[in-house]
Amino acid sequence: MKGSLRHEFETGLPAADVWEVYGGLLVGDLIPQLLPEVFSKVELVEGDGNVGTVLLVTFPPGTPGSEFFKEKFIKVDNENYIKEVLVTEGGFLDHGFQKYLVRIEIIRKKEKTSIIRSTIEYEVDHEHANNPPVVSTSGLATIAEAITKYIKEQKGLE
After folding, report:
1. What contacts 1, CB < 8 A, 6 or more positions away?
2. What pLDDT does residue 132 have?
3. Are strands 114-124 and 68-77 parallel, antiparallel or unpaired?
4. How far apart are the first and last CA of the chain?
5. Topology, domain 2-154
6. Buried (b) or exposed (e) across 45-73, using 16+ Cβ within 10 A?
7. InterPro entries recorded for this chain (predicted)?
8. Distance CA 116, CA 68 (A)
9. How far is CA 152 from CA 17, 32, 138, 147, 158, in A?
10. CA atoms of 93 and 116, how far apart (whole Å)
């Protein structure tokens, strides 16, 4: 069984400003600081923020399910502001998913605003097809809001 979910968040910020955070490793450094209830730690396993980069993401103690997951950057498009990361170990793969991919697109709207479009694409194995694991964009929505607020604070806009 395959599926996808999407969330969009209007930032009120230029796309280039949002991509500065999402496009490389900075987003992984910021999430544990801004949202320790979502991820307690994000560690660089290998890479420099480009395709092939691997991160180890640790959930806060007491989070139901897995303690961690590893993700690999499989696409980083600095011109079109698109990043795709694939979970390669742990996390959702421990709970019936065969594939779990997150795509972040920073879409230019007008001169001074953009949209963070977060898409989850997934495949569930046959034994979970009738009772699929829960998939939600709520975590990505929370991250988009927190990162937008952070950028606005850094630029003195809030």
Report:
1. 123, 124, 128, 129, 132
2. 64
3. unpaired
4. 43
5. Alpha-D-Glucose-1,6-Bisphosphate; Chain A, domain 4 (3.30.530)
6. eeeebeeebbbbbbbeeeeeebebbbbbb
7. Bet_v_I/MLP (IPR000916), Plant_def-hormone_signal (IPR050279), START-like_dom_sf (IPR023393)
8. 25
9. 10, 18, 21, 9, 6
10. 25
What residues does each domain of the chain span? Answer: 2-154
What was the pLDDT predicted at 69?
96
Active site residue 83: yes
| pLDDT level of residue 1 (50, 70, 90 thresholds) | confident
User: What pLDDT, in 10s, does the model give residues 130-158?
Assistant: 766 678 899 999 999 999 999 999 988 86
- Catalytic option among 75, 83, 149, 152: 83
Are 83 and 77 in contact by the 8 Å Cβ rule? The answer is yes
